[in-house]
Amino acid sequence: MHMATTPQPSGSPLQKLDDWDAFLEGRYKEGKAQSEFRQYDAQANPGVAEFYRLNHEKQTLDYVLAKEKEYFGLHRGQKNIWEAADYLNTLVDDSDPDTDLTQIEHLLQTSEAVRGDGHPEWMIVTAFVHDLGKVLCLYGEPQWGVVGDTFPVGCAWSDQIVFCEYFKGNPDANVPEYQSEYGIYKPACGLENVHMSFGHDGYIAEVLKSYLPDEALYMLRFHSFYAWHRHSAYAHLMNRKDERMLGWVRKFNPYDLYSKGHTKPDVKQLKPYYEDLFAKFFPDQIAW
Ligand SMILES: [Fe+2]
Ligand SMILES: [Fe+2]
Q1: CA-CA distances (angstroms) from residue 112 to 95, 115, 123, 130?
Q2: Alpha-carbon distance 37 to 28, whole Å?
């Protein structure tokens, strides 16, 4: 029997990374009234609330710049897509093997849903790879530095960011330059020129930026930027390209949110199709 009460080491308030995904799904459940929101947040999800407290307090501009320097040069070795997925699959957290899906099963569920709706091949590939950046956990990054809603750093935080009250504990709150509307940025500078809180989204976009179209890269880079794609915040930083791309990010989001059923995809049967598909987009080895 699965026990859900295992005490977690401090700094790992989520039992497993997927708890954050489940929280998102609940947050954006259709037909839910705004008033149910906060209640769902704080009381029913103390682990999630603690996770966001850590995330919001620790994702400073300096932290983000240091992590970008550490990871965006892609010095973590070569792997193809399937090898990266197998590697991510070694991520074992406190999950229930009877009901929980493995990481690869999660990826395939998302990509198969996209494929089932007749979307182009680049979008099927994008759906498969969108969470591969969670390998950051296997590099030793903390939960709050891998998953969670993302947001710009170096400028004022939007009140549309979930649990935004926790930003008062972020050292950047005391830097007036970072607290103005534009902060270190120029009006309409474009979201690709903004430093986002560090996590699996930005990392996978950097790994794959030479191989996929802009629409795909926006889906990867901004898929957890709910304040933007769901709540329309940060319009003052958007350029024309962001305006064109927003629709694609929104098109992808339901697949990310709602494709997590409990039917296990047949990994062995699907693998040949995906290997052929990856060969159309990626070289044999990719720098991570
Ligand atoms: Fe994700
Ligand atoms: Fe996802």
Answers
A1: 23, 5, 11, 13
A2: 9
Distance 201 CA to ligand 1 centre (A): 6
For residue 220, the CA-to-ligand 2 centroid distance in Å is 10
Fill in the amino acid letter for 122. Answer: W
- Cα–Cα dist 12/227, whole Å: 24
Whole-prediction pTM: 0.91
Cα-to-centroid distance, 134 and ligand 2 (Å): 10
- CA dist 60 and 173 (Å) reads 9
Q: Would you say 247 and 45 are in contact if contact means Cβ atoms under 8 Å apart?
A: no
DSSP 260: -
Under 8 Å between Cβ of 189 and 237: yes
How far is 22 from 258, CA to CA, in rounded Å?
9
Ligand nearest to the CA of 252: 2
Q: Give the distance (Å) from ligand 1 centre to CA of residue 219.
A: 10
Alpha carbon distance 213, 220 (integer Å):
11
Other CB atoms within a 10 A radius of the CB of residue 260 amount to 18
- Alpha carbons 245 and 222: distance in angstroms, whole number: 10
Of 258, 262, 256, the C-alpha closest to 100 is: 262
Q: Which residues surround ligand 1, an ion (CB under 5 A)?
A: 131
Longest alpha-carbon distance in the chain: 56
Q: Which of 259, 252, 257 is nearest to 23 (CA)?
A: 257
Tens digits of residue pLDDT in 14-71: 888 888 888 888 788 765 555 555 455 666 688 899 999 999 999 999 999 999 999 9
154 CA distance to ligand 2 middle (Å): 26
